Amino acid sequence: MGFGLVTGTGADGMADKMLEVTGGLADPSAVLFGLTTEFIGSWLTTLFSWIVLTSLFAATLAFQNSAARYLFSMGRAGVLPKALDRTNGRQSPFVATTVVSVLAIAMVIVAIAANWDPFLNVFYWFSAVSVVAIVLTEILVSIAVIVYFRRTHENRKVWNTIIAPVLAIAGLALGEFMLISRFNLLAGVSSGGDPAACPGDPGSGCGPFEMSPLGWFLITLPFLIFVVGLILGAVRRDKENYDAVHNFE
Description:
Layout: H1 2-9, H2 14-21, H3 29-39, H4 42-77, H5 94-113, H6 118-152, H7 158-181, H8 183-187, H9 213-248
């Protein structure tokens, strides 16, 4: 697709043409849809629009399912209210799914009330936060691999239990640092205002770590939730130990 875009727009001055076609990146989809209409016909543009809609629906459904499963698992583990682990006759986590749906509707209502742009605000903000959170989760999983096999000694292969996880941690940590340093451009929360006009040099408000207060809040959100999870886990372990001793007595 990238080759097709370059061929259609031309390699010379491509960045300027992109800004012109998209109205300063206000409508990025205009690049693809404009080229399909110009070189093939409006019928392909219409087809692409339907493909985009159905793919977005599929992605939203996947996010809904994964979020519900996370709430279900945390409810079953006792981290969140136990009611979240309830299932219906088809073994679907209907309580967790309902909670996710209610939260999504509430988020939409808040976005409408605050007059947030669906793409420039809601999508950019939360997709960027999700990327940072996913990379953080992968780092924690790699650490967990090392800790687990050090405790159980189930697998004595050094590559599988030490070297590969350490390399993964190093690579993911570097990637996380790069994501955080340029989170202002990724989420459109630079302190310089319009991210489309950012030159990216220090002092412009678009350089590394130059974020608005909202940007700093969003970037710290996954780490704050992680700390809250640690506290909840510690409290839960203490309660389990207390119950075990009390029951034994």
